Amino acid sequence: MPVTPPGAKHLVLIDGSGYIFRAFHALPPMTRPDGTPVNAVFGFTQMLSRFLTDHRGSHLAVVFDASRLTFRNEIYPDYKAHRPDPPPELIPQFALIREATEAFGVAQVEQPGFEADDMIAAYAREFVAQGGEVTIVSSDKDLMQLVRPGVQMLDPIKQKPIRDPEVFEKFGVPPEKVVDVQALAGDPTDNVPGVPGIGIKTAAALIQEYGDLEGLLANTGKIKQPKRREALEQNAEKARISKRLVQLDDQAPLTLAVEALAVRAPDPAMLSSFLAAQGFRSVIARMGLGEAAGDAGTRARQAAVAAAQAATALPEIDRGSIPFGPYETVTTLEALHAWVAEGMQAGIIGLDTETDSLNALRANLVGVCLATAPGRACYIPLRHVAAGTNQGDMLAAPVEAPPQIPFDQAMDALRPLLTDRGVLKVLQHAKYDLEVLRRPENGGIEVGPIDDTMLISYAMEAGKHGHGMDELSVLHLNHKPVGFDAVTGTGRTRISFAQVPLDKATEYAAEDADVTLRLWHVLRPQLREEGALALYEQVERRMVAVLRDMEVAGIKVDGAELARIGEDFSQRMVVLEQEIHTLAGRPFNVGSPKQLGEILFDEMKLPGGRKGKAGAWGTDASVLEELAAQGVPLPRKVLDWRQLAKLKSTYVDGLAAAIDPRDGRVHTDFSMANTSTGRLASTEPNLQNIPIRTEEGVKIRRAFVAEPGHVLLAADYSQIELRLLAHLAEVPALREAFETGQDIHSRTAADIFRLPPDAVDKEARRRAKTINFGIIYGMSAFGLAGRLGIGPGEARGIIDAYFAQYPGIRDAMERLKEEARLRGYVSTSFGRRLWVPDINAKDMVRRAGAERAAINAPFQGGAAEIIKRAMVRLPGALKAAGLAARMLLQVHDELVFEVPEAEVEPTAALVRQVMEGVATLRVPLAVEVGSGRSWAEAH
Question: What does each C-alpha distance from 814 to 697, 818, 836 come to in angstroms?
Fold first, then answer.
């Protein structure tokens, strides 16, 4: 926002109520000397001080909500009725923020019966009528209807203007039509009903076509889509009520005359007293209220504070983006102490590490990056060596190393900043950096508190795009960061990061911290707006420490048992090869898809062969399964051989190579943001794909063992996805079966095959089980036919019988597909949005795949949510109970613990209690618990 010229009238209206909540959730917990929470107060005073010292307007006012009930509750009693009470830590800060406003000498406005937004609308109308310009400091979408010539908005966190183009990007219509779009789309946050099934995009298209809400409602007969037309006709009055709820009242009575909003200097004594009582030293310094300090240490700290304030001053609204760099290379303790002081005062820093390995448990710390404000960042080299130095000598400081602070001295200087509970550390993929820094050889620092931009993005947009830093930077900052290959090279010429010259290392590394902090400023405020705040704070962020501890713990693997399994698999593969050669009529390389295709389709003349672009026959699993289903024995033998080969390569040879010689355990890496459903993945080694019920899978699990004096305890959610299906769909029979403890597959078989319960045999139950699980994955009749070894016609008949018996399931599936088409995403029972990008694709194959994903996502995603909730609660529950069990693995719906032999029973009881109690569904959750010396025995 430009400085107001002398004599010009410019009113700055601060949405006080909105800013309180944003500041509270954006800033780390802070308390003043008497223990009162003050993080929102601190953010608020920082903002006010900057507006006053930078002369940002001729008039300034903070606008608050006076009460929860307004004239809108008379129109619609349920308006905002379901909003939760404020967090306990925020409640005492409301009064303090009003005190802060008074101490700064800033006018404050509130009016019973009206919302702050109405008062903002009224003052904006009046001030523009008097020839002035207005800036509304808020990002609240409801205020975007006020944008017009003379009135703009300023996002207080992103520090970006909101004018006509930004409003159009948000709503698809100009500001004057925003209320019509909101009336149709509704707002679940405020309980504005809207029209069911119509989202922002559809509403914008309708308003663009028919002009306004009444024009649309007068022409519903022209709507081609039957469901949409019916929804509009049946909910016309709700739409009209919704418009009255979202339309701001710019005729609200003005509680203060416009002249009373003129900017005036605060009373220094009153302001200094208030700020000192809160412990806000940095604001006192910014306002020039403190006494000059005499000692050199204090002067140095004040210099660092001044630098931080200069760097973090809010940018002008019409200024170009802050440049990325140049950044500082910190090679002296004096410079590092200044950066630490600056970070302390900033209260929020970007943090990143540079290492010599992607394996956090083996990586040596090479350098640390800090950012204290957008564009203000540094790189602290710690273990750089001269180019050409043997990378095996990383921990030794060679003579020819470039200038840098001795490692221990640097870590001692950083420790207070990285552990200070009043400074929020913002990282991208925090789990990796926390593991690196906690290792003794890398400083042994327990970093906290933290935010993770990767997980913030993932909590809002799982499945919509990737969540790596580079992709997020391009997406949200329109900036492509320096690539790792650009500084280390590629292929055989690649060098370790420790060998990168300091100027290039600084350009690359400091930018990472800068980008991470900028992403936080953009993404963190969106969590509440997107309904993902609770998911992020209560689940995703808490998972970081849980998974870090699990990875560090690892799980013991019996190398001798692995060798025996490998030998068994090798012998069986030899036998299978001989059988395959006999069936083929000649020997060939079973592992060669090209040779196999020639055998099947050129020599054996089997039907259904398809050649790829390179001219070779396709022999993937789907082709072989199709042939096997037709009764051809050779494809089945090849599938068996491939399964053994994969298991041997991945889980026998791979596990053996992954055993850490230091402790005899494997330490998998849990990926937190790779799946579209919220499920965890694991790599190096991947433990998610070990077959669960096959003989081979059982053998592999025998190699996972407990330490002496301990057992492994496995706790598995029973049929959790089917329970979620019963929860989401109106299927009384399924709910009854779960509530009464019936075998769900036998009950399904009895229902769809019209059998008495005692007449259900194994085959009927097998078919019912296949369709029960298949239906969650959107399985087609062709897919079911392949699974059951029957014809497509018979499979279609089974599916029709299933839906006839359980029509609520078909209705639920159709609702999910329609939700995905309208919104672009589906939601779990716990509110996570799971994006389905191809749901409206023109290509029929891609669209069909997206429809299956839309059906399955809420069940997989809901199951992931439930087990994550259990995981974040279990470590604390075990500790509180005095139990020594360690959580080691999470594999789909199962958790594996290592438990002292004497504590198996109480641990099992506690684990079951916590896991079954983390969510309340319409059917009970059930957990099966077993224990044994090996993972296989625990089942």
Answer: 36, 6, 15
